[in-house]
């Protein structure tokens, strides 16, 4: 989040939806107009999401007045959008049809009576006025302020054409420019629809039971703790916990998984998911603005406002490029007639053609359309990309590091072997479970689950002086004896003569099988070995294979587990590198090392204990964003389903987006260069100049739309 957005996200800031933005320039102009309104302290436009956030007090009327130059419509963020007329019926497009008809009639009149005939000239002038009056108003205002944007360039060019008697050319330029603006509007609307379709996923009201009464309640009025009744075939309006019933839910809208998931009492459910078969009663746990779906929409919109590096480059380039074109056009129109005795009319015409071809339309739109489209497509497929910068970074990745537990494996370890040396297995497991009750380690939960399954009453055992030994294990007093539970390494240090060779062999045998061995003992002897294993996810091996296939040079598995367990799992999964025995800060340092070596490194983790490493990587990817706020907040990309198989798709989409952005920028600049070269022999006509500009805008837009087609 930029500093300015952080400033605006205070409570007094208010967000409005804006309808009618055509280009990034107009959005910037609207932002400046709003900033100068009385009562407004600051304002920030999000062009990708068609929103403006205003800090201070103002009215919708005032905002619409500030956007009158482009006939913008403003509404409250929560209000339902007014259905827009179909593209072909929109008011701003109707004048284009009228001008086009007038242009054709005038052309025929010119053919019939000669180009200079008064009827033809009147027809052309009418076409120019009807098709271009809004353009002229903007152009003149900008000219007075010496603000040279596309409208200024076009106004000067068209009036210049009329002044030197090229009425037909002027009218053609007006119409082609209006068509190009309409197409730009259409393409941005199309790109934004991906978000708007997300907004319509969840119902706007729900059946709520309060006391003994059931009623339909709008989502804004539903409170945390209300009971929501969801019938088969209905979508959930709110996030919550199932308190009654069992059903399968289609969660594709949130996680991108097409396979329905079974939900029963105690399970978390999300707004926007579809209840397929059973009747569910759900206790609402979040207000409407805090639901996972609302967060996704908010994050996607924020992401589309973030400038990608290539967009920042284009904006900087356009800032210097437009004035340079104006100066060049002016010199071209004036120097040959003044110093070489050339024909004024011809060189003014050439200067005007340079103005038109210099219009940076296609260039300015080349990046945002691609980014808005790609991020929208990703969100529909259950991948949240938090900004254009991460989209571009993911496209240039060469190395991906994975946390092992919960990412490549299921993260639910279970006890596979218990080997005792001194004492009864049940007794030793009871002591171990009682001690581990105080530990936060995932392996502790495996021991506790095993003790519960075996019906051991470890909760009755009194544990004193519990202490954690960072990265190695825990110790505590039970029945006045000090016990240690931890890694074999801990006992190598603890026992006066280290671990006996036959116990070492047993540990090694278990580790070779990919199991993690925990040791229970005292300062004098080892009492038992407990082997724990974590199952590999079915998708892990296939995902690693696909990543290598799409050109990821190196995949690294990072784990706090011992080397042998790590190698057993790493080999099964197929990663190219394995780093074991890592503490959280080691992971962090290793990611920094990788960054120094390879520049661009992704870290994939579950977002909680991996937060430092996720933050240190170029692109942090969190698993299972649905339901975990930490993952949504710390990661740059969140895979909403707890499923790695979305990762190759994300890389593919990012690479495609990167390629398309490069193509767009190269093509826009190439067309400009080519058109400017045509000036030398005098082949660049006004209509050809605008045609080149319009064609470039259209091609760049259609090229970006290809990102909607990227599938898993």
TrEMBL record:
Residue ranges of the TM segments: 94-110, 117-136, 320-340, 352-376, 665-684
E.C. code: 7.2.2.21
Main location, first listed in the record: membrane
Entries under InterPro entries matching the protein: ATPase_P-typ_cyto_dom_N, ATPase_P-typ_P_site, ATPase_P-typ_TM_dom_sf, ATPase_P-typ_transduc_dom_A_sf, ATPase_P-type_domA, Cation_Transport_ATPase_IB, HAD-like_sf, HAD_sf
Catalytic activities: Cd(2+)(in) + ATP + H2O = Cd(2+)(out) + ADP + phosphate + H(+)
Topology of the protein relative to the lipid bilayer: Multi-pass membrane protein
Superkingdom: Bacteria
One Pfam family this sequence matches: Hydrolase
GO terms of molecular function: hydrolase activity
Family: Belongs to the cation transport ATPase (P-type) (TC 3.A.3) family. Type IB subfamily.
PANTHER family tied to this protein: CADMIUM/ZINC-TRANSPORTING ATPASE HMA2-RELATED, CADMIUM_ZINC-TRANSPORTING ATPASE HMA4-RELATED
Protein known as: Cd(2+)-exporting ATPase
Protein source organism: Pallidibacillus pasinlerensis
